[in-house]
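Appendix B, example 12.
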Amino acid sequence: MQKQALLLIGILLLFSCAEQPKTTVALNPYEDIDWSTFERHKANLHTHTTESDGSFDLPEVVKMFSDAGYTILAITDHDVVGPDQTTWPWENYGVDPSDFNILAVQGNEISRPDHINSFFNDYSDASQSSERLAIKEIGKRDGLAMMNHPGRYASARNTQFYIDLYKEFGHLIGMEVVNKRDVFPRDRILYDSLMSYLMPERPVWAVSNDDFHRLEHFGTSYNIFLLPENGLDIDIFREAFENGRFFAVHDPSETWSQAVIPDSVIVSDREIIVYADCDEDQVQWISQGYLVHTGKSLPLSMNLGNYVRVHIVGEDNAFTLLQPFGLSSLQPMQTAKLDVINGSTSADDYIAGARNVRIEASQPPKGKVFERWSGDDAKLIADVYAVHTTIALPKPGLYSIEAGFRDALPYSLTVVNGTGSGMVKEDDIVYIKATVPEGKKFDYWNGDAQYLHHPRRAWTKIDMPGHDAIVEAIFIDGYTCDQRLQNTTFDQQMTHWDITHNEASVKTIERDGVKNKVMVLERRSGIAQLIFKDVGLRKGQRVTLYFDAKVVPDRDGFYHGSVGVQNHDADGRELMNPNADVEYKDWRTYSVSWIAPEGTTSLRTWAWMRNGQLFLDNYCLRIHE
């Protein structure tokens, strides 16, 4: 009897010493999925056509996505066609979705306030400037909404702005955390901050879309919806969308095959397991915005916050995001504090176990440069020689690190085909200028151009790195224009421009001390186009459009301008659409060069502006002999 009692006590002691779960899963978006029968459907929920600012009409767009294996598609043209009008139904535009085995989703992008995608209703109002009122109108029509690319508005919005919206509107169910080729990675920083406040009671689903306008964006970002067998139905899809039964995927590889799609996700009272064809270290677990664990299995005995989400790393910058799991802690979350001497960090305290806490060294004193991080906890820093880096905080407690500086050393700066060479101290700013030979035009700086303020400007500045540097000015031959398109001041040929919005105009400005007239596109969605017929290009003939351009950002610091050309055959069909994005706030020469496809009989050049102002000058087409 005594032996049995001792054995029982031993078992109880062993059980009590075993690691017990500290957390339970209060919200599992994949709980109702039968992984053996549910089908995976590829979806894009942010798509544009020529009905707003896309490059292809709806029949072309639907065929492209269908050919790429998509079975769910929402056309979300900007709300430019009028109140309560969307690109819907598709049959009105010559498309029967059943011909493509694709589920058509009614959509629209509200564009005057921060961009909001609207689904399952016809709300459209280009005059609406309030995010709150727009979302309210979508709800009145029994629609669903998601905030698009919030990282784009980072300078004007904070987390509280989004918390208030998501708390007020239950039909605001998603946030776009990947857009195009992941052009706004701050989307996910905001998303994690939002989840830290709202979970587990109020989930927001992470959505990935290619925001399709042009070919370079096509297929790079999408979603995998998990639907029952034979469940490609609009009501079943809506329920899956509302309940987060999908993965968000980014795959910019040429083959779109480098993202890892999980086979299943199983939740028990002790762990969450992701079954996927990848290595253990490819599966990362994020809680409160920090990497807390790596591996396919997450023990719920770990120190976790009020949610955890999975980030699966693929090849060629691909990744897959699972929807967040809401967690209910049985014990208070343990935290760690970080003291950064001669530097800064992103918060006062952190979840203990975080591995990617951001740190940054302060601006060095005059005559000094950053050397390295030091201190007893420097071994936890990802790169002690990096000004911006991360640190791991493996357990509760106080951590301390220090940024160290040293005297700046002189290095050799060599400016080939220009002025500014000499011995320069690290981090000093030096003015350099290209010396342009007669008959040439400056094109760009080569070599250590990453340290230049403006690599496409003949006169610019360089931030001297901590080593010898060489930059070389590259020139192109001066060019002559085909007289059918030469337009140096825009004052003679304005009548040939089709200005489809009132935001485009001709203004007199002073440039390089000379006053002349230039084309200006202002505010949102300004579009101007110039059509040239009977150009008679031969197949294989090289054509180049040259133009000078600059952009002026809007009050929020954003801008997006583009200029391009469309080739058409005798029946008016588009053959190709080369273009160039205008990226610089100073004047520079751009060029769009292409080989004419067979059958080119006319060209349509176009200029387009989303935010701010786009200035165009010295418009010139060269048809190479």
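The first helix runs from residue 2 to 17. Residues 81 and 459 are 44 Å apart (CA to CA).
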